[in-house]
Specification:
The chain is α+β, with helices and mostly antiparallel strands. The chain is built from six helices and seven strands. The longest helix is centred in the C-terminal third of the chain and has 15 residues.
């Protein structure tokens, strides 16, 4: 199992996963909303990592795909730094595992691997947020050393957002 840069090589399983995600909001994949093809998306994430043509208020971010046996399992998006908006929602890392592969330990392992990537980017203290009702995500964060910071109300979100810090030196 490895984290790799998104690539055409894994397109088929990525497209199958998009069908599985259906109408779910997919954390860590904001670019999917603005791209109409997978090619466009692949180009967008490459630009995001280089900080090129970013939408207003966005910071550079790196996306990795979790690959096992040549197939896309999930993805993670690491924002290189925080902004006041990211401090409230989104934070440093967003992620998702494709629905058919959930509850098998992939989410926990993917975040562990992502923390190593974040360390390489010089992020020594990682902020992660999750919806208070998202038990799976909260468990993944806590299993990776996440320490509860606080709970906040975010405009437009009916459920409070929980914030966690992970020491990542
Ligand atoms: C959150 C998410 C990434 C977790 O991925 P995953 O591969 O299912 O996680 P894991 O298998 O590593 O599970 C981690 C723990 O959470 C628990 N868990 C997983 N899904 C759960 C659920 N729906 N309800 C309660 N507990 C759950 C697991 O039992 C496991 O705990 P355990 O080891 O004590 O048994 C996945 O559910 C997902 O993609 N959700 C939609 C996107 C999302 O919410 N992203 C996070 C945004 S903050």
């Amino acid at each position: 199992m490895e984290l790799v840069e998104p690539s055409d090589r894994y397109r088929k399983s990525f497209e199958e996963a998009l069908v599985e995600f259906g109408s779910e909001i997919i954390p860590g994949a904001y670019a999917l909303l603005s791209c109409s093809t997978v090619d466009e998306y692949l180009e967008r994430v490459r630009k995001d990592a280089r900080g090129e043509d970013l939408p207003e208020g966005f910071v550079p971010s790196t996306t990795y795909w979790l690959i096992e046996d040549g197939e896309y399992i999930g993805h993670v998006n690491i924002r290189h730094r925080l902004t006041p908006a990211l401090e409230r929602l989104g934070a440093h890392i967003g992620y998702a595992i494709r629905p058919s592969r959930r509850q098998k330990g992939y989410g926990t392992q993917m975040l562990r691997m992502a923390l190593e990537k974040a360390r390489q980017l010089g992020i020594e203290r990682v902020l992660i947020t999750c919806n208070k009702e998202n038990v799976a995500s909260r468990t993944v964060i806590e299993k990776n050393g996440g320490v509860f910071w606080d709970e906040i109300e975010v405009e437009g979100r009916p459920v409070p957002t929980m914030r966690f810090w992970i020491e990542n030196k």
